[in-house]
Amino acid sequence: MTSGYEALREGSAWIDLSARGKIRVTGEDAARLLHAMTTNNVKELADGAGLYAFFLTDKGRITADANIFRVGEEFLLDTEPETATKVYQHLDKYIIADDAYVTDETADWFEFGIEGPGSAAALERLGFPVPQEDRHILAANSGYVARLAITGTVGFRFWVKEKPVLDLPQATLEEARIVRLENGIPRYGEDISERYLVQETQALHAVHFSKGCYLGQEIVERVRSQGKVHRLLSPIRISGAVPPAPGTKLEANGAAAGEITSAVYSPALNEVVALAYLRAEVLEKSLGGSVQQDGIPEADKMIWRGSR
User: Fold this and answer.
1) C-alpha angle with apex 287: 281 to 290, nearest 5 degrees?
2) pLDDT at res. 98
3) SS3 145
4) What global pTM score does this model have?
5) At what angle do helices 84-93 and 30-37 cross, to 10 degrees?
6) Cβ contact 297:251 at 8 Å
7) Average pLDDT for consecutive 10-residue bins of the chain (308 residues)?
8) Distances from the Cα of 21 to the Cα of 32, 38, 153, 199, 218, angstroms
9) For tag attachment on the chain, is the N or C end more exposed, with fewer CB atoms within 10 Å?
10) DSSP the chain
11) Does the structural domain 230-308 have CATH classification 3.40.50.1100?
12) Residue 6 is inside which H or E element, if any?
């Protein structure tokens, strides 16, 4: 029997994502509210389209992320499980004289993904519509389907009232995490947090630099105008089968080089794949190189591949 991990890499598998946050924003000022609270251009989002965005503090630190979809005159936000309540409270806090309403619908929908290189064919076989563009959303089975993947491969996200019968292998969240890290895709709560600035994550598809004012925009613009950050989130590959713990410090030529945020053993690659914040000067020296864990012999060096 094909494992969920193998199916995600070679075919298609479904993933239970029902714990993820689902927030709806309605009202005439819904677009204005989300535009002012996030880093991306929500005001110009067309019906049926979606985008990825950060929520920032007034100091420019990343407090959450979300996939935001426009459905008619309403907006559906898909968040990490750990940040749903925080995003809901954050938006509700800033509604003052706006005609906008925020509703937490996390418990109202069953959310799942179908991901892998064969996922589009799987949708067609199961009778689901197939969104053709990244983060576009369509009506499906009294709910929605969007082109979106947590693993970094081809994938689709469903929000439905009841779980359908799925004639596909199921991948666990841990199997999905392995594939995600193989593809160098960060997750808020592991690799991105309030410790970091937008540019440090290298996830600049979350930012529209000419959209106008939003909470935290002054810091984002200041960093952009200065043109430099001191650390960058980058994928690295590590010889061996034992993943180092989050927070493991890295060295290069005896000097501090960075810190690991997440790591896992990849059966397909027969080595550890990880994400780490590496010092910018380490990345700038070459397109590939080595760093090592504090106190670990040079023979066990960690090979990094450069930034995404």
Assistant:
1) 70
2) 85
3) strand
4) 0.91
5) 110
6) no
7) 88 97 97 97 97 97 98 97 97 91 96 97 95 95 94 95 92 98 97 97 96 95 89 91 92 84 96 93 62 46 42
8) 21, 17, 22, 25, 28
9) N
10) ---HHHHHHHS-EEEE-TTSEEEEEESTTHHHHHHHHBSS--TTPPTT-EEEEEEE-TTSBEEEEEEEEEETTEEEEEE-GGGHHHHHHHHHHT-SS-S-EEEE-GGG-EEEEEESTTHHHHHHHHT-----STT-EEEETTEEEEE--SSSSSEEEEEESSPPP--SPBPPHHHHHHHHHHTT---BTTTB-TTSBHHHHT-GGG--TTS---TTHHHHHHHHHHT--SEEEEEEEESSS-PPPTT-EEEETTEEEEEEEEEEEETTTTEEEEEEEEEHHHHHH-SSEEEEETT--GGGPEEE----
11) no
12) helix 4-10
Residues constituting the chain: 308
**Region for residue 48 given its phi and psi (left: phi exceeds 0; alpha: psi -120 to 50; beta: otherwise):** left
Q: Quick one: pLDDT at residue 256?
A: 84
Structure tokens at 67: 């996939």
Residue pointed to by tokens 């019968």:
165
Q: What is the pLDDT of residue 118?
A: 97
Domain boundaries, the chain: 230-308
The residue with tokens 């019906």 is 47
In this prediction, residue 2 carries a pLDDT of 64
Strand order in the sheet with 50-56: 50-56, 62-71, 74-79, 21-26, 101-104
**AA letter at 144:** Y
